[in-house]
Specification:
six-stranded parallel β-sheet; alpha/beta; single chain; Rossmann fold; nine-stranded mixed β-sheet; 20 helices; globular
Length: 482
Amino acid sequence: MSKILYVTSEAFPLIKTGGLADVAGSLPTALLKQSQDVHLLLPAYPEVLSKINKSKKLSTSTYYGLPVQIIETHLPGSKVIVWLVDCPAAFNRPGGPYADKHGRAWHDNALRFAVFCHAAVDIALNQLEIGWQPDIVHCNDWQTGLIPALLSLYPKRPATIFTIHNLAYQGLFDRQTFIDLHLPAELWQMNGLEFYDQLSFIKGGLAYADEITTVSPSYAREILQPEYGYGLDGLLNNRRQHLTGILNGIDEKYWNPGTDKHLKQKYNRRTLSKKSINKTELQQKLSLPVDASIFMIGMVSRLVEQKGLDIILQSLPTLLTLPIQLVILGTGETHYEIILSEWAQRYPDRLKVIIGYDEPLAHMIEAASDVYLMPSTFEPCGLNQLYSLRYGTLPIATPVGGLADTVTDATKTNIENDTANGFVVKTQSAATLLTTLQDALTLYQKPEIWRQLQTNAMSGDFSWQASAGRYITLYQQMLAES
């Protein structure tokens, strides 16, 4: 059994902005079920504090002159112990964890997450005398990147592992910030926190962690290439012997069409004929023409370039002439929101765009749709294609990152050998996307083949149990080496 301090800036259901929260809310639970002693460390945002019931204070300390308390509670719906870093000056404010309500990054993000990292380091070294010290500190994304760097300065320390959920987000700040944070001078070097004369939080994880993981095997290979490496491919190639890709899992209790409380009609592989009841329910809810036979395309996504928004917009003039309905739920860059909303006004019977995020509606869209649109330019793992497969909603996805690892194209050969579970958009273009959608629409007219594709999709094992087992193996290797 390993003692693991799992450090993250968000975790569902306490706080969520993206896939990191889903992972952080599920992996520790899966690790605990496999007899690991895991504690989750998270900032005490107002939204988090509003969702906890019982709690107790464990310790008090000060970082950068700011008072900090460590509060103990539990992850809702699980037995995972959660420790909250309660620093009101850093975290008690309206808006999101990283940005204000207008989407502007908090001006003091470097200080906020430096406080968080220092607290994690003190817990790791047992300097807060909480009575529990980890063997392994598992860090996630740039907000935790200073932890491996700071721990590297201590000869007796826990092992460290750093998981990249999205290399595009790096936590870059100017050199003065490094000075203002009073970080040790020896960390300011090309092989340390310095990145083209900037302070890079993520480099703290990439340069100093004992092991690095990414959230899919394909993404682990992609980030070694300049086009996906964001200037860090050289460092990652230098550390490739310590780089592993482990595919994310999903919470199969929460994302389960057989038990999903958000659905009008629950269903499973044996009762797939009932799936269309969710389509007509969603059509009524969104004031779309009610027709169980129409081909429905769903998308729940951040509306940003990475998610393929450009080729989606380029394809709309042709796509909206086909006998389809397209439902998009998401929020993101303003120009995408405006253009999509304008198209929806012009084609109210074909396109419905809901700006924002609505968890119950996300589940309804997954269950109601026949295919799920995910033509990402890059995708470290992707979770929505996994949710879609679970719901018998066939992904239409590009062959990048975790999409390449999980979506098998409905070619003639793959259909015949029962491995096809979706449709692959082979090149990042509107023309290829349209061709792929039309291929899917053609197969949709063949119910027996379509049902087999759905059955294949729903038969995959994307549970956290398998992924957690791979992490445990890596933890054991790290401890053996240390």
